[in-house]
Amino acid sequence: MSETYVPLISSGVAGPLGILHLPRLWQKASLEARAKLAAGYPGIGQGYDMMVITALGLNPDAVRAFITESKPTYPQFEAWIKGQPGVKLTKANIHKLNLSIVSYIHADETRKNILAANQLPDDGSVLPDAVNLNNLDDWFEFHQAVLK
Q1: Which residues are 43's β-sheet partners?
Q2: 98 inside domain
Q3: Which residues pair with 5 in a beta bridge?
Q4: Which residues contact 32 (CB under 8 A, 6 or more apart)?
Q5: C-beta of residue 126 within 8 angstroms of C-beta of residue 115
Q6: Which of 12, 30, 40, 118 could be joined to 131 by an S-S link, Cβ 3.0–4.6 Å?
Q7: What is the pLDDT of residues 121-145, one digit of tens each?
Q8: Are 40 and 6 in contact (CB under 8 A)?
Q9: Residues spanned by the domain of 124
Q10: How many Cα atoms occupy the beta-carbon half-sphere of 25 within 13 Å?
């Protein structure tokens, strides 16, 4: 039986290029490529993953193929990105992308479900942004899979 892993790199983490969520995207896609990503997590999903890929001008199939075939370390992944034709790595573009990540708010139902799973009140006392709610969700899933 193979082990699977809940990704624990937060979307609020950036690597040397300064791009939020990129380390998490690399971790999830790398785990998926080895059939080690926990159930319920997409390797490259439609949310933050596609926000980052689109904003940088990358092709999601090329990202997936590179990670699957090359098994890069995180710095190798960033180096590959820098070498892609048409990649958008200006400070202004990265800043705009990072702002969109930290300011994204989940739908009410998603927020309520994450808070309920963590037995937290939906009374405005928890930071409502998706980065913080996703952290709570990951920590809960990790607890359920590993610590319970």
Answers
A1: none
A2: no
A3: 37
A4: 41, 42, 43, 44
A5: yes
A6: 12
A7: 999 999 999 999 999 999 999 999 9
A8: no
A9: 105-148
A10: 28
